[in-house]
Amino acid sequence: MADVLSYSSTGGWQQQAVAAIGTVVAEAAGGLAIVGGEVGFDATVGGKGIVETAGVLDINLPGRGAKVAITTAGAGVLTAAGIVGGLIMRTGPGGAYDDTTDTAVAIIALLDNPAIGDSFEFTIVNGVAFAGTMLAGVGVTLAGVTANAASKVRRYHCQMTAAATVTITGIGEMVA
Where are the domains of the chain? Predict the structure, then answer.
């Protein structure tokens, strides 16, 4: 048996004996395979990190998903799906417009194992020739520059600050 170091759930490193897991071989298409054995993952920290489910590795992190298109002609809602998903494509208005974020509760509900302090970034592409102003939904606090200039792309940082609150901060503008 081989010994490995692992970090215990109570804190600190511990030495563990590990049974032989098989033979590690190179795959023809690249990567490595374990032949005659298996590798498993016991737990993650707060449900975040690399997890294995039915032989498939997954990474549980907030801020990943498909783009969301918002095409409302006037004021719209910046949906929780778009915010957590990471990309909102905004089109539709024929003049300056205001978009209100979804509620903090709706945003938090879409996070994987949410915990106070969790944060992620998302992007809004303003495909409109007019400025858009972000307004805060219930439980949402806005900080920094959250208005999106005409035909620009802006990055935002979203952080869970309490059980039912998030802060969204404008962190930068890019050319669309």
Answer: 2-60, 68-175
